[in-house]
């Protein structure tokens, strides 16, 4: 059952259901499938028969399908959908009014007539056949790697996905250059007796499939929640004032880390009001050049040219804009930054009370009475 985790953490109990799929994966808040989508309209939408549903398959593959048979479908239902050829088995990730918004978010431009159809809810026979196809994926991947190596192809087959009806398989491969795999397709088709489809993936998708721990100490983002991979450039590092060290900026896939784009928009918004960093500041002490910027603190660091050991001077962004304005007017300030010292007469008194209190100060002290000694009277003889 470990191979079924790539389909959405299905358990044996959830797969052994009757034809109506009474037991569904209906948890909205706990799932280990990164392809799950959060339905934030579930409390206000009461649509039992959705027109379009979002269906997830293996890895990052999703699709939108039409409910032409007016079935009562909900999130988590295992259904049989139209494929080319035959049918495929998938799990509904979204159903209801939220699907239309998800289509706009995914930039799905195809009309409803172009969408493939939902055939039925998966029966026991469909699920057993689906499970059998999934169990063969790892063995097929290992054998296909040996075949590609024997043919001398400079490529790596990273994953294999069988169709639900066990008539077609998608081979995901990685290659740095163009590969002629026509002979490979013939050999694979003869070896496994199925239709073959080759699909190239990038290094980020491969890292997400393998998984691992990042430099931050957490599980890789690409293996947990990132499904749409966007390009990452060194511009993101420059805007955030990150040192351009390839060893630290690269992830396990060898590409720039996806997390460089997480706070990029925030830094770009914060830098809109910053003055131009390419303009030097002219003072009576010399000409100062920009070296680095602390964006969220609003501080720009400048250094005077000519002195290798010259210390950096932190200058507020407002002061930098003021000095640049003075330079444009032909004025040269005496100091790069005006230093004002404000002395406060009020002093805070500090008292260290540690160890002054006793641990038994709340306990009642026992009264001690002096015992009178039995002394003989003075007149006693």
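^ structure tokens above, recovered residues below v
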């Amino acid at each position: 059952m470990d191979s079924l985790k790539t389909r959405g953490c299905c358990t044996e109990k959830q797969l052994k259901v009757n034809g109506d799929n009474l037991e569904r994966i209906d948890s909205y808040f706990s799932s280990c499938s990164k392809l799950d989508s959060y339905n934030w309209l579930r409390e206000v939408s009461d649509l039992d028969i959705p027109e379009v549903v979002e269906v997830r398959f293996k890895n990052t593959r999703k699709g939108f399908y039409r409910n032409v048979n007016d079935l009562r479908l909900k999130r988590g239902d295992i259904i049989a959908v139209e494929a080319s050829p035959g049918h495929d088995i998938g799990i509904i990730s979204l159903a209801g009014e939220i699907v239309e918004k998800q289509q706009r978010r995914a930039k799905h431009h195809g009309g409803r007539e172009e969408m493939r159809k939902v055939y039925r809810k998966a029966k026991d026979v469909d699920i057993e056949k689906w499970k059998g196809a999934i169990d063969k994926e790892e063995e097929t991947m290992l054998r296909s790697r040996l075949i590609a190596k024997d043919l001398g192809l400079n490529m790596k087959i990273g994953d294999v996905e069988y169709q639900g009806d066990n008539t077609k398989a998608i081979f995901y491969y990685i290659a740095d250059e163009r590969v002629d795999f026509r002979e490979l397709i013939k050999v694979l088709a003869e070896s496994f007796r199925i239709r073959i489809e080759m699909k190239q993936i990038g290094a980020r998708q491969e890292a997400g499939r393998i998984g691992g721990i990042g430099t931050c100490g957490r599980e890789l983002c690409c293996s947990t929640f990132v499904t749409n991979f966007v390009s990452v450039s060194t511009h993101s590092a420059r805007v955030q004032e990150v040192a351009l060290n390839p060893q630290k900026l690269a992830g396990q896939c060898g590409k720039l880390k996806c997390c460089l784009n997480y706070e990029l928009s925030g830094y770009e918004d914060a830098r809109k009001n910053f003055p131009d960093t390419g303009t030097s500041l002219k003072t009576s002490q010399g000409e100062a050049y920009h070296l680095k910027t602390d964006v969220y603190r609003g501080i720009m660091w400048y250094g005077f040219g000519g002195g290798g050991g010259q210390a950096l001077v932190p200058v507020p962004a407002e002061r930098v804009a003021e000095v640049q304005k003075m330079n444009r007017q032909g004025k040269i300030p005496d100091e790069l930054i005006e230093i004002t010292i404000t002395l406060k007469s009020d002093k805070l008194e500090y008292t260290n009370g540690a160890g002054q209190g006793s641990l038994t100060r709340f306990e009642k002290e026992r009264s001690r009475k002096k015992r009178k000694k039995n002394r003989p009277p003075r007149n006693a003889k």
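Residues 2-122 form one domain.
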